[in-house]
Amino acid sequence: MIIETNLTPKEKSSYKKDGFLVRENIFSKSEVFKINEALERAASKALLLSQKGTAYHLDGKRFVDSDYLTVQFEPGLDSETIRVIEPAHQLDEELRELITDQRLVNPIQDIIGMKLISLWTDKLNLKRPKEGTGFGWHQDSPYWVHDSENVDLLPNVYLSLDNATLENGCFKVIRGSHTSGCLPGTNDGTQLGGFYTDPNAFDKTAEVPLEISAGSLVFFNPHIVHGSEPNSTNTQRRAYIITYQPGGLPALKSGEIENIRVR
Ligand SMILES: O=C(O)CCC(=O)C(=O)O
User: Fold this and answer.
1) Of 3, 130, 153, 251, whose Cβ has the fewest other Cβ atoms within 10 Å?
2) pLDDT at 239 over 60
């Protein structure tokens, strides 16, 4: 069956103007259920691997590197609650297949303007009930600008794996904040402060909270200012964020070239 997943001209111009684009209810409930099972399997593996990895602390958060995998834990010196796993697709076959799904890939091909694309990075973002912390306003591009010569061509797709609300810390973007490249960071004396965007460099009134249902997608520009609040509810707020780049280029952390062949 051929499914039409390319961007319409209207979607293309709205992505260009706003720096993001939402497509609601793209994955069915049963697909989301299976992806969440894969996510939890990957999280269990990442936890095991982290027990033998190299730990370090930044601003009170524990990170563990195991080969090219990085696991970030919730704040607290010994917290065992995982917040982010990057990259993740190598941990589970289902995730490996998901990154080639045409519902993710076709719009990204349109955004990059090339048929041949490759994987840049992918992150499982786990915001556990009551414990999941927020993420201050930031752009992704300052994290990547020293490793990629194509930082403008690293579009993301965010797959929401639970119904996201303001209370459980939905993803938020600043509409139109992607047009000036890498913005200045904060200078608050913390180790990671330089990666958070200076609040004077963007218009906070253009904030858009993306209260989207599980199975919805957000395509977003690597320069858009985005962030989220903590999860104050008793339910999960999980997401998978995948970032692509033009074909034939090495992935951020493994250094391997992972060209995408659509399923
Ligand atoms: O936790 C969130 O929802 C934000 C994730 C995020 O901003 C990121 O991974 O760059």
Assistant:
1) 3
2) yes
From the list 226, 225, 257, 232, the residue with the least C-alpha distance to 244 is: 257
Pairwise CA distance, residues 153 & 140, whole Å = 12
Give pLDDT tens digits for 162-206.
999 999 999 999 999 999 999 999 999 899 999 999 999 999 999
Assess contact for 83 and 206: CB atoms under 8 A.
no
Q: Exposed e or buried b for every residue in 157-171, given b needs 16+ CB within 10 A?
A: bbbbbbbbbeebbbb
**All domains of the chain in start order, with CATH:** 9-27+103-246 (2.60.120.620)
Query: Hey, how many other C-beta atoms are within 10 angstroms of the C-beta on 41?
Result: 15
Minimum-distance ligand 1 atom for the alpha carbon of 132 = 1
Which tens digits make up the pLDDT trace of 113-168? 999 999 999 999 999 999 999 999 999 999 999 999 999 999 999 999 999 999 99
Bridge partner list, 123: 241
Q: Which residues line ligand 1 (CB under 6 A)?
A: 123, 125, 135, 140, 171, 226-228, 241
